[in-house]
C-alpha cells in the first residue's frame, strides 16, 4: 500500500505569499510522521517544478518542528493578478499535493 501525503497530514493548505510567491503549509498528524516525512525527497524542488512549473532553485523549505509542520514556498512563474492568473490567492493549489506518493 502506497502512503500518500494526505494520509500523513491532518491539514494541507496553500496560499498567496505576496505577489511573487506561493506557499504551502503541511501539518503532519503527529511527531512520528513529521520525523519520517518532513524531509522526504518526494516533497523536493522537482515536485514543485513538475506540478507548478516552479524553478527548482527557488523552492524553499522551512521545517517547524514545534508545530509538526513544514512550509514550502516557491516563486510564481508570473506575478499575481496577471492575464493568465487562474487562482489569484492560490487557495486551491494544495489539491495537486494530496496524492503525492511518499513510499
Give me the secondary-structure topology.
Blueprint: H1 5-8, E1 9-16, E2 21-28, H2 31-37, H3 45-52, E3 60-64, E4 69-75
Antiparallel strand pairs: 1-2, 2-4, 3-4
Features:
alpha+beta; 4-stranded antiparallel beta sheet; 103 residues
Give a concise summary.
Helices cover 18% and strands 27% of the residues. It is of the alpha+beta class and 103 residues long. It has one domain.
Descriptive account of the structure:
The chain has helices at residues 5-8, 31-37, 45-52; strands at 9-16, 21-28, 60-64, 69-75. The protein is α+β, with helices and mostly antiparallel strands. It has one domain. Strand 3 and strand 4 (69-75) form a beta hairpin. The radius of gyration is 13 Å and the shape is globular. The mean pLDDT is 93.
Amino acid at each position: 500500500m502506497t502512503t500518500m501525503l494526505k494520509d500523513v497530514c491532518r491539514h494541507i493548505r496553500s496560499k498567496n505569499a505576496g505577489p511573487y510567491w506561493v506557499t504551502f503549509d503541511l501539518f503532519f498528524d503527529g511527531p512520528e510522521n513529521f520525523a519520517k516525512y518532513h524531509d522526504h525527497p518526494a516533497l523536493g524542488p522537482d515536485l514543485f517544478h513538475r506540478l507548478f512549473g516552479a524553478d527548482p532553485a527557488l523552492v524553499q523549505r522551512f521545517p517547524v518542528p514545534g508545530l509538526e509542520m513544514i512550509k514550502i514556498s516557491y516563486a510564481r512563474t508570473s506575478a499575481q493578478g496577471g492575464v493568465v492568473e487562474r487562482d489569484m490567492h492560490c487557495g486551491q493549489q494544495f489539491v495537486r499535493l494530496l496524492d503525492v506518493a511518499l513510499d
